[in-house]
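(Fold this chain)
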Amino acid sequence: MFDTEKSTASAWFRQLRDDIVAAFEALEDSHDTGPFADANPGRFEVKETTRQSDDGSDAGGGLMSVMRGGRVFEKVGVNISTVYGTLGARAQKAMAARKGIPGMTEDPRFWASGISLVAHMQNPHVPAVHMNTRMFWTPHAWWFGGGSDLNPCIEYDEDTAHFHATQKAHLDPHGPGHYPRLKEWADEYFYIPHRKRARGVGGIFMDDYCTGDWAADFALTQDIGRAFLPAFVPLVEKRRVQDFSDDDKNTQLVHRGLYAEYNLVYDRGTKFGLETGHDPDAVLMSLPPMAKWI
């Protein structure tokens, strides 16, 4: 049931992963001026991840691709996974409370596939960024989720404008209401209540998205993914050559603390990954290599 749709979505997330990995390694190769230009270009280390059910049976897995210590990227992870099995009692309860899906207790099977990306940059002038897209299926319902948001420690209004304009251009063909709705959704989701501030300058985000038209919803999800590279890469190319001070680096490290707090306390993907037994190194890939609290 839904096998064709599942395999189509999973293959798309793999293709998007391949495109992003190639683009990021190309950024490493082309960085020949400015800070870190004399360093060796970074490369992704790729590791297969596996997941087992409580009875030891296969429950899926994926690819964890991480680059550390590059010219441009201090740490970036681009992970894909396709996992399946049965939801545990706590996950069932959480999903029933959030979505009101009947029948989860009687038949708690699930299937989920997606891509998740977080990039922490060498140069404080280059913004950190997050992106993910995913599909979730149960016998009782299916939905899509995902988005991307920009997390600069040193803000440039023109960079924020470019990031949002690119996302809007990719969403507008699906209807003029999508971008403002998903922007507002991102502003709400990526807010850090205990700090009373956003973690960045926003982007787009959706969750539990299902209109009943799988092809249309998948096409929207694809364009969320397609918007990422043209929204982000020009910002990297512009800012990676700028000199920075010790104060700039300190600002970056403190800002990374916000990111770590959010992901460990509020992020649904982190909670779901740990709750369902996925590789903790892959789940926690989003954490920065260094951060600072004051």
Observations:
- The first strand starts at residue 45 and ends at 52.
